[in-house]
Specification:
The structure is a single chain. This protein is α/β, with parallel strands linked by helices. It has two domains: 209 residues, Rossmann fold; 32 residues, no CATH class. The protein contains six helices and 13 strands. It has a nine-stranded mixed beta sheet, with helices on both faces. Helix 2 links the parallel strand 6 and strand 7. Helix 3 crosses helix 4. The model has no long low-confidence stretch (mean pLDDT 87).
Length: 257
């Protein structure tokens, strides 16, 4: 069995950030693995090891990052936690969740992974779109906001948060799972494992090989001061509402891809 987990590198919650030329300047900031992604790495390792008393699944854990060269540090941290190998799609291009899902889905196919673990909500985007978008591209079931997880006999089971509390689930693999606080307590890399991580495989990939570009356009701050059109889109028919919204954005608001 092969488990893949995606990590993102974000500023530490206590880091002091500067804004230069309208952009966040990360030079000198302390960068760490996104907290919710870290729960995904720990979940993959616990499934592999049978850390909670369940039978170990004997999996290979592959950790992935898409972003600038500095992401190597986050990948090495995940390898030191216990991941078997890493893949770094190196790019300085900022990808939105929908574009990133294309890269992640393609890597899952290439690697032949059966389980994909993603953070439920990214700290820098404040978005929950990556998991569902990737599941849609793969045509796999998705379990979001999980707080318990086991695998036995090719069947994934556990619990996840819903509006009314939490529900139990059971689904055959392959599947996409999004992780959150409460699922586990991520381990700290030990010094021996940090040294071992330096010898583990960290493969580089080029973003150009995936044919991906950002889909979402950054909206300027002056949009807040523009007069509203007063249009209300009826949301009873989701497909029709989405089509109407796209038409308004393209033809009247002049927002392009």
């Amino acid at each position: 069995m092969k488990i893949m987990t995606l990590i993102r590198q974000v500023p530490d919650v206590e880091a002091r950030l500067r804004v230069t030329g309208g952009e966040v300047d990360l030079s000198g900031a302390t960068l760490v693995i996104d907290g919710m992604d870290e729960y995904g790495v720990e979940a993959a390792l616990e499934l592999k090891e049978g850390a909670r008393g369940e039978e170990a699944v004997g999996a290979e854990v592959v950790v992935v990052a898409v972003g600038p060269r500095r992401n190597e540090e986050a990948l090495r941290t995940a390898l030191a936690m216990g991941a078997d190998r890493a893949v770094h799609v190196e790019t300085d291009l900022a990808l939105d969740p929908i574009a990133l899902s294309q890269v992640v889905a393609e890597l899952v196919r290439r690697e032949g992974a059966e389980l994909l673990l993603l953070g439920a909500q990214q700290a820098d985007w404040d978005s929950q779109a990556l998991g569902p978008a990737t599941a849609e591209r793969l045509g796999w079931p998705q379990l979001t906001w999980t707080n318990a997880l086991t695998v036995q006999g090719g069947v994934l089971s556990g619990r996840h948060d819903v509006d009314e509390g939490s529900d139990a689930f059971e689904v055959p693999l392959p599947a996409v799972v999004t992780t959150q606080q409460g699922l586990n307590e991520p381990r700290y890399p030990t010094l021996p494992n940090i040294m071992k991580a330096k010898r583990k495989e960290l493969r580089k990939e080029s973003l150009e090989a995936f044919g991906v570009r950002p889909l979402l356009t950054r909206v300027a701050a002056d949009v807040q001061t523009k007069e509203r059109l007063g249009r209300v889109v009826d949301g009873k028919d989701a497909a029709a509402a989405a089509a109407a919204l796209v038409t308004f954005l393209r033809e009247e608001a002049k927002v392009s891809r």
